[in-house]
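Researcher: Please predict.
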Amino acid sequence: MNNSFSFQEGNSESQDSEPPEPSPANRVDLTVDDGVIDVDASWLSHCTKKALVELAISGASVAIRVINDAVMAEMHVAHSNVEGTTDVLTFQHSTEGEPLSVDIAICADEALRQATVRGHSVNHELLLYIVHGILHCIGFDDHSKEEHKKMHKEEDRVLQAIGVGPVWGQSC
């Protein structure tokens, strides 16, 4: 299975204007596909960098693509052999001992549905998906009930620590 995807569609919102981190800088490149609206790419990039620092990750390369249901459904089948859309797909390219290198696809349509149910912004929901993807890369999992609870608790801890506040636990 091919674990990469193209970030060539949409508008790139690389946030290289942020002040450098004291440790090796984390690079965050965020692309919003054409037709996806109400996404604050600058805020998401900035918060992603803050989350990486909070998780003591340095030298990371994180590429994020914000997509719609149709593109996510195609990717879900292609990479997971699962029909239908989903919230986030994570493709880790680094191995243990290397700086984190990951592509994360997040679905704006799913974020809108979940944000409406949970009573917060689409951007907060999208950030939750990004943090979720990063946590998968550093060893968190959500396949058992206990792992699920631990992972979502860590998501909210990170989001609170960077000044966003809980997103997952807000609805529990």
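Model: The chain has five helices and five strands.
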